[in-house]
């Protein structure tokens, strides 16, 4: 039973084991004695010397005490934060991507330092020269072919009747930099997809040597010479960060051109990179942080009008029919200006959730923490979703949300926090109504050693209680319980499992639904 519950939780992206009632005290942020960690921290400081990025848009406040000063600038209210710990998103995510061998996309106007950031991490983190990085880098343009990017046949070998391909340097480099991704034709982007997704290169039926490593893509603003990045490739890009504008007060520090980096002794050896990756992957995730992830996934990915059955009430189901979820919102009884499900056209998929866990671990490790907490996921969540989660026509309709129309990062961060808060409000409502959390009570009963029929009765009661005032954000819990019901009904003493009839299905009335829909 324990293995079955764990597998269900994994499939449905729910926290396992369930969140305990008593929360653990906040993790301490303190320097590590590990020399690899100290070297990585030094690398971040060194990156700030070459890329002038004083903006601290990833912020942490000790003890959860938000320090904010509101300044009036005419009719605009400026929110000025005074963090105890702050980092620049472009620098930090560039470094974290190298640590976890992820895939990062730089967004921004030409000349904002996107390519320079990739070249900088190649020199500082991997110890490569600027010439090596430039020779291995792919520059996107409309005439770029698969052979140009991966490798071409050698004519001298063809004359001898042998087929031989000389691999491009990017395949062997420990860091992959692809400049101007959205100027590469879709056919060639498909070849990049095989590199990113499967970590292998093949051209002319010849398998080429390949060295795994992080990917750094750049993309300029859309213009007549750009292509749309194919969705499968975009989905495999873990994180996207926008290059920030240059600070006018640092004009005297602006170099005349791209100069080689002089930072001996900071590059990590392959053994040190492997050790850092192992430490990051071993870092535990706090139960509350997992609950916040599950809440964000449930609130942003489900759709009440997608189906009359909870198993199919997802935005994925709507999109697979060639429809947009927002097209169903006018017929929904939820307040579309406030319901989180109505704010986005798509939701969070497993690949995004896996990347959120990985980068959350990397951020917590970089900060010197012994576990990942909600504050880590809250700060990093927008950068893992801003290139994937699209706003719907119902987004930004509330007066307090209008400011987010041009601020995708803070909009997504607000959605993440609101999803967790609404889940907490639902928990409090259940505790006030029933005196317990129906879902947690059902899981505890299923894990117990009582008779199977008693377990089944508790789970069925939880199904009815969650269905009373049903909200699409509770769809994942309900589906989990329905699967649990089916498992408990299977005979554990060799009896055959009887199919469930339509009359035995638990039905419920949605809150505020018209009588003909009950």
What would you note in describing this structure?
Strands 6-9-12-5-13 form a five-stranded parallel β-sheet. Strands 1-4 form a two-stranded antiparallel ribbon. The chain has a two-stranded antiparallel ribbon with strand order 2-3. It is globular, with a radius of gyration of 26 Å. The relative contact order is 0.11. A hairpin with a 2-residue loop joins strand 2 (68-73) and strand 3 (76-81). Helix 11 (270-281) packs across helix 14 (350-367), helix 15 (374-385) packs across helix 16 and helix 17 (438-447) runs antiparallel to helix 18 (452-467). 42% of the residues lie in helices and 10% in strands. The model is unreliable at 493-518 (pLDDT under 50). By secondary structure, the protein is an alpha/beta fold. The protein has helices at 2-12, 35-50, 89-100, 114-124, 130-136, 146-150, 155-159, 169-172, 186-198, 231-235, 270-281, 287-301, 315-320, 350-367, 374-385, 408-434, 438-447, 452-467, 475-489; strands spanning 58-60, 68-73, 76-81, 85-87, 103-107, 138-139, 151-153, 165-167, 176-179, 201-203, 206-208, 215-219, 239-242. The protein folds into three domains: 2-9 and 430-517; 70-254, P-loop containing nucleotide triphosphate hydrolases (Rossmann fold); 283-425, Helicase, Ruva Protein, domain 3 (Orthogonal Bundle), CATH 1.10.8. The longest helix has 27 residues, at 408-434. The protein has 19 helices and 13 strands. It starts with a helix and ends in a 29-residue tail after the last helix.
């Amino acid at each position: 039973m324990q293995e079955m519950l764990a597998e269900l939780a994994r499939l449905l992206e729910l926290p396992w084991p369930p969140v305990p009632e008593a929360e653990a005290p906040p993790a301490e942020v303190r320097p590590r004695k590990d020399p690899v960690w100290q070297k990585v921290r030094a690398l971040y400081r060194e990156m700030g010397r070459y890329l002038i990025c004083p903006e601290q848009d990833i912020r942490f406040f000790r003890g959860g005490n938000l320090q904010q000063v509101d300044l009036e600038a005419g009719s605009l209210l400026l929110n000025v934060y005074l963090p105890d710990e702050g980092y620049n998103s472009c620098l930090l995510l560039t470094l974290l991507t190298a640590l976890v061998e992820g895939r990062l996309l730089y967004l921004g106007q030409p000349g904002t330092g996107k390519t320079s950031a990739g070249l900088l991490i190649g020199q500082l983190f991997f110890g490569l020269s600027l010439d090596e990085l430039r020779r291995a880098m792919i520059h996107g343009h409309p005439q770029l072919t698969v052979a140009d990017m991966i490798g071409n046949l050698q004519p001298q070998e063809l004359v001898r009747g042998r087929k031989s391909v000389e691999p491009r340097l990017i395949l062997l480099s420990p860091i992959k930099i692809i400049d101007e991704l959205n100027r590469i034709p879709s056919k060639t982007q498909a070849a990049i997809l095989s590199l990113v997704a499967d970590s292998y290169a093949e051209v002319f039926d010849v398998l080429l040597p390949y060295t795994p490593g992080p990917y750094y893509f750049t993309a300029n603003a859309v213009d007549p010479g750009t292509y749309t990045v194919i969705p499968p490739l975009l989905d495999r890009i873990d994180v996207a960060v926008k290059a920030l504008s240059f600070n006018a007060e640092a004009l005297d520090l602006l170099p005349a051109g791209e100069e080689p980096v002089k930072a001996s002794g900071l590059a990590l050896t392959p053994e040190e990179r492997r050790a850092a990756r192992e430490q990051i992957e071993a870092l535990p995730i706090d139960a509350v942080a997992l609950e916040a992830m599950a809440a964000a996934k449930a609130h942003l990915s489900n759709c009440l009008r997608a189906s009359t059955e909870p198993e199919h009430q997802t935005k994925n189901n709507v999109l697979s029919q060639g429809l947009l979820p927002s097209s169903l919102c006018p017929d929904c009884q939820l307040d579309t200006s406030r319901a989180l499900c109505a704010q986005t056209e798509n939701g969070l998929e497993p690949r995004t959730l896996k990347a959120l866990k990985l980068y959350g671990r990397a951020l917590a490790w970089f900060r010197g923490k012994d576990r990942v907490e909600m504050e880590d996921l809250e700060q990093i969540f927008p950068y893992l979703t801003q290139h994937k989660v699209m706003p719907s026509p119902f987004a930004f309709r509330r007066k307090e949300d209008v400011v987010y129309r041009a601020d995708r990062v803070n909009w997504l961060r607000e959605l993440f926090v609101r999803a967790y808060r609404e889940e907490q409000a639902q928990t409090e409502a259940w505790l006030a109504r029933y005196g317990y959390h129906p879902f947690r009570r059902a899981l505890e009963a299923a894990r117990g050693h009582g008779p199977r029929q008693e377990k089944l009765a508790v789970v069925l009661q939880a199904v009815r209680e969650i269905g009373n005032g049903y909200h699409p954000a509770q769809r994942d819990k309900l589906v989990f319980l329905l699967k649990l019901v089916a498992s408990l009904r299977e005979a554990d003493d060799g009896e055959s499992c009887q199919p469930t009839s339509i009359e035995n299905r638990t039905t419920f009335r949605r809150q505020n639904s018209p009588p003909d829909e009950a």
